[in-house]
Structure formats: C-alpha cells, structure tokens
From TrEMBL:
Residue spans crossing the bilayer: 17-40, 60-81, 88-112, 216-241
Coiled-coil region: none
Keywords, in A-Z order: Membrane, Transmembrane, Transmembrane helix
Domain of life: Eukaryota
Major localisation: membrane
Name recorded for this polypeptide: Tetraspanin
Organism listed in the record: Phlebotomus papatasi
Length: 304
C-alpha cells in the first residue's frame, strides 16, 4: 500500500514538473513575442510617414499576445502547484484563445505583406511632392534617405522638378538640372576644413520594401510558429488535467482502502439509528419491582 502511494506521489510530481517546464517555455516565448513586436512597432513608427496606420495593428497584437501569454503561463504554474484540475482546464482554454489570436496575427501579417509594394510607391511619391510644404514630411524623407543611404524612390531622378532650381547642389554631369536635398549625400571629411559630398545613387524603394516586408514576414512566421507550439500546450494541459484528476482519485481510493483495512473507517451517524452509548450505573433507570420481565415469544404482536 505504501509503495502504491509513493508511486502516485512520484507521478504527480512528474506531472507538475512537466507543466512547470512547459510554462517556462511559454514565458520565454512571451518575452520573445513582446521584444519582436516592440522592435517592429518601433521600425514602423520611424517610417510612419510611409506606412499606413493599419500596419501598426499586427505588431501591437503581437505585443498584446506576449503579455497575455506571460500571465497565462504564471496562472498555469499556480494551478500546477495547487494540483487544481479546474485551474489547469481554465489554463488550457486560455491557451486555446491565445492560439486563435496568434492565427489572427499571422493572417493579418501575411495580408499586409502583399500590400507593402503598392503602399510604399504611393506614400513615398506623395511624400516627395509635399517635401517643400510640410516640415514633418521633410524630416521623415531626410531621415529615410540618411538612414538607408538612398535618394528618391527608385533613384535620384525622382527629385526632378520638385525642389527649387536655385543653388543646385547636384554637380553630376548626368543630371545637372536636378536639385537634390542634402540628405541624398554623405559628407566625407578629408581635413579640418575640407569635405566632400558623396551622392547616393540607389533609390529608397528597394530598401524600404525589404525592411517593411521582412518585418511583416517576421510577425507572420513568429505567430505561426508559436501557434503550433500553443496547440501542443493546449493538448498537454487537458491531458495533464485528466491525469491529475485520475491520480487524485486513485490517491483518495488508496486512503479509503487503507482506512478500511485498519478498521478506522467512520460510518456517518444516522439520526434514526444513533450510536450505542454505555450508561453509568447512576444513569441506568431503576427497575420497578412490580413490573414483570418481558419475554419474547415467536407469536409476539411486535413480529406481526
């Protein structure tokens, strides 16, 4: 009997440790999701002039999923520590809800990836046209060209006719009439007072397309990968809840059998059949000397 009880205890500990390991993996996954989501959201925010507002929904959803998964993982650890079947079942249901959110984030990212090229062409040319009128757009375009070391959308020819022709800064023979902003060149200092401007020749579209497309792909692949892990987590959660319930039932059965074998099982008291209590001599009723002892007979009326 002791060996069986020890086996049950060992099995329960193995189940709890298994759930702790799974939740630890989910904690690491949640931190990864939060980090990736915040990084991509920062990238989109830096180029928000060229990125539509609905593109911000995917990284925001990824960050929210990370925080929810972190809370659910901690909830699962508490349920495992308390050996609560109800908490483990709730934990499995919450994982299933997170799985649905991750699938939604992955689908959203895949859809957004197909819209990147058309969006960038539209927003980048629109930003060049408003370069002189809007200081905010001017700073955004200058930041893009300086950070990515590029000029224009497909090339510096896209600046033709946009800037004023006075004080041209472009000295190349191919496009002397094109005026380019200072962000299209990188200053190389040769001495204390001498500097040379090296003009960027590549357009910004290819690099912007790579940055935004790869960010959307990272969201889609990350959410899809974690979603498949969530499926395993949901299956394991319900299996562990079932095992915990069965193990606790077996443990209670073992305890009941042990009590039966030792004769310490207490039968519940019946109100109509109270337990026998021996009376003291002082509490016993005195016998009437004139009363006759009742002798049971087979034909007694009490039998009929």
């Amino acid at each position: 009997m002791t060996a069986n009880s020890n086996n049950l205890n060992v099995g329960m500990r193995c189940i709890k440790y298994m759930l702790f390991v799974i939740n630890f993996m989910f904690v690491l996954t949640s931190v990864l999701l939060i980090t990736v989501g915040l990084t991509i959201k920062t990238i989109f925010s830096e180029f928000d002039t060229f990125v539509d507002d609905h593109f911000m929904s995917a990284p925001t959803l990824l960050v929210a999923i990370g925080f929810i998964l972190l809370a659910v993982a901690l909830f699962g650890c508490v349920g495992a520590a308390k050996e609560s079947t109800a908490m483990i079942n709730i934990y499995g249901v919450l994982l299933a809800i997170i799985f649905v959110l991750e699938v939604a984030a992955a689908i959203s990212a895949f859809v957004l990836q197909g819209q990147v090229e058309d969006m960038l062409v539209r927003t980048m040319f629109k930003s060049l046209d408003k370069y002189n009128d809007n200081p905010y757009i001017r700073d955004a375009v200058d930041f893009m060209q300086s950070a990515l070391e590029c000029c224009g959308v497909h090339g510096r020819e896209d600046w033709e006719g946009i800037l004023a022709t006075a004080n041209p800064v472009n000295t190349t023979e191919m496009s002397k009439e094109i005026v380019l902003p200072e962000s299209c060149c990188e200053m190389h200092y040769q001495g204390e007072h001498e500097s040379e401007c090296v003009w960027f020749t590549d357009g910004c579209f290819n690099q912007m397309n790579f940055v935004i497309s790869q960010s959307a792909m990272l969201i889609a692949t990350g959410a899809t990968t974690v979603a498949f892990v969530q499926i395993l987590g949901v299956i394991c959660a319900f299996m562990l809840a079932k095992t915990i319930r069965r193990t606790k039932t077996q443990r209670a059965l073992r305890q009941w059998q042990l009590q039966q074998s030792l004769g310490i099982y207490n039968k519940p008291i019946n109100h109509y059949n109270p337990p026998y209590v021996q009376l003291n001599n002082s509490e016993k009723p005195k016998k009437d000397p004139d009363a006759q002892d009742f002798i049971y007979q087979p034909n007694s009326p009490s039998v009929n």
